[in-house]
Design goal:
The chain is mainly β. Helices cover 7% and strands 34% of the residues. It is built from one helix and nine strands. The protein has a six-stranded mixed sheet, covered by helices on one side. Strand 5 and strand 6 form a beta hairpin. It is globular, with a radius of gyration of 16 Å. The two termini are 20 Å apart. The chain binds zinc ion. Zinc ion binds next to loops.
Length: 146
Amino acid sequence: MTRAPYLPEIFPVEHMDRFEQQFWARCAQRRLMFQRCGGCGRPRNPPGHICPRCHSTAFDWFEAPKAAEVFTYTIIAHPVHDAVRQHVPYNVAIVVFPGLGDLRFVTNLLRVPSRGIRIGEQVALEWEALGNGFVPRFAYPAEGDA
Ligand SMILES: [Zn+2]
């Protein structure tokens, strides 16, 4: 089944550094991966060249768990850019992952129940085709999944 992506492709991206480029190259292969510091072992996001805790520049990439928990969210009702004028209201959520400490990931939640979003609920990684790649979103179970 094909459906429209949650948000349009035309959100402008002004600049991506090489770590963000690496992140999105992996997303294009439907692999959500984060960096883990080679100095202190702390997982981190967004990707960058240095650990904000121990200042090590050593790191590797690891695959994120598929399951996450809603940490917080907001509903965007006022379009901040013309690209999303036809898409309000939409949600922006921050999810956390079991075993990854304080690592946070900003996403959109799909298949939100009519009662709305609740902090602490379980959601699962779901890829949306967008442009030449894929965007990681997190979704409530489809009807019949639960
Ligand atoms: Zn570190």
